Amino acid sequence: MSEVTAGKRAGVLAAACAVVAERGADATRFSDVTAVTGVGVSTLQYYFGSREDMLIAVFRYAAQSDFDAVSERLAAAADAWAKLLVIASHLTGAVGSDTGWRLWVESWRWALRDEELRAEVLGDYTRWHELLASIIAAGVSAGRFASAAAPLDVARQALALIDGLALPVALGDPQVTGEMAGDLLADGLGRLVGLRAAAL
């Protein structure tokens, strides 16, 4: 596939993410993506093959986009605590839209029936766990966190907390807004890592 074609395919994937987030994977057809992008069904078939392959490509694209967006924001974060808050705010939809989280939910559902996607989703979780663990370990080394537990264990607990608060946000629960989820996460994560006051 040429660089130009790959770029057009990426653009289609970005648009298809919004379609899947809105309609759900089961209800998304080539024609729905065509309606949004203007790209013909035959071109979509060339890019992806089957509808199912397109959906899996959407899940992969969304997962990588989330990770890339967070990685870019982490570069500007001042310390380990700020980095944890960047991840929490992004993954709960406390900033931006909840499209990414809606796609996570759809990918979980699809992964229950697709062994290959299941392995990828679990791989994505491993990547988030490792990122969180590295930040937690750095925070402990810097004296910002007081946790004595293994950083990977704390990372698993942190991501479980993020998931648990992000789901009601994605579902539109009026009792758990993105802002509220962010505040609850900051409190919960602070307790989990043993947050210490920043040095003056």
UniProtKB/TrEMBL annotation:
Keyword DNA-binding: yes
Residues spanning the membrane: none
Gene3D superfamilies hit by this protein: Tetracycline Repressor, domain 2
SUPFAM superfamilies the record matches: Homeodomain-like (SSF46689), Tetracyclin repressor-like, C-terminal domain (SSF48498)
DNA-binding segment(s): 29-48
Keywords, sorted A to Z: DNA-binding, Repressor, Transcription, Transcription regulation
Pfam family, one: TetR_N
InterPro entries: BetI_C (IPR039538), Homeodomain-like_sf (IPR009057), HTH-type_TetR-like_transc_reg (IPR050109), HTH_TetR (IPR001647), Tet_transcr_reg_TetR-rel_C_sf (IPR036271)
The HTH tetR-type domain, residue ranges: 6-66
Name of this protein: HTH tetR-type domain-containing protein
